[in-house]
Write a structure and sequence with these properties.
single chain; 4 helices; 32% helix; 10 strands
Length: 238
């Protein structure tokens, strides 16, 4: 009986010690770990699933935000010392860095891009590169390559404000002018030809063909016929 009592007392004491040990690892802030005097576990890792525990480091643990990582950074749901060069969707995935075209960078300046949203802190995508402004800094083909506010592609250079008529409108105007000149020329020639046919004394191609055929027939018959297209010769008086 005495032995059984000793065993029970031993188990109770051991449970209390284990409970205190487990409780000692629980925390809310890093300062809770320092107060316990366990310097080897001085970081409070605030897990949403397993509860907050004092640890040497939170690196490698799952997380949803930086506050879960005890001074480290939450990068794509994992605590890391740094998020630099980690894949990202937005700045919130980068632990203090910038998400530039789906990669965490210190700054997006000079990084490759497709649209302004790829450039985070420097705002503008200028002909495939992130810049604070596009004005006068890059060659361009179309307005979308000049990402800044109110910036336009004028003569292959990004400029602030409208650059007047665009190249396409200028070409359209030139084509319209040339088309109008061609139309006027055709109408004038048509009128001239039509007016000439109706003029007195004008002999058309059909009349010339008939006259030539008639003259040939009369010549074959030994007849002399005056060509109606030419005036009769003047007879001299002897």
């Amino acid at each position: 009986m005495a032995v059984e009592k000793l065993i029970i007392i031993f188990l109770v004491v051991l449970s209390a010690i284990l409970y205190e040990a487990v409780k000692a690892d629980e925390c809310v802030h890093d300062s809770d770990c320092h107060v316990l005097g366990n310097r080897s576990r001085a970081v409070c890792c605030k897990s949403n699933i397993f509860g907050s525990k004092c640890r040497e480091s939170c690196v490698g643990l799952m997380c949803s935000a930086d506050f879960n990582c005890g001074g480290a950074y939450c990068c794509q749901y994992e605590c890391r010392e740094s998020c630099l060069n980690v894949s990202c969707i937005s700045d919130s995935d980068c632990g203090g860095f910038r998400c530039c075209n789906y990669k965490c960078r210190k700054s997006c300046l000079g990084q490759s891009c497709l649209i302004n949203e790829d450039c985070s802190d420097v705002k503008y995508c200028c002909n495939g590169r992130c810049g604070k402004k596009c004005t006068g800094q890059t060659t361009c083909m179309i307005n979308s390559e000049c990402g800044g506010d109110n910036e336009y592609c004028c003569n292959n250079s990004c400029q602030k404000g409208s650059c007047g008529l665009s190249d396409s409108i200028t070409v359209l105007i030139v084509l319209l002018v040339l088309g109008g000149m061609a139309t006027v020329t055709v109408v004038a020639l048509s009128y001239y030809c039509s007016h000439r046919r109706r003029s007195p004394g004008f002999i058309g191609a059909d009349q010339l063909a008939i006259s030539a055929t008639t003259s040939l027939i009369h010549r074959e018959n030994g007849l002399s016929v005056q060509d109606p297209t030419y005036p009769a010769p003047v007879q001299s008086e002897d």
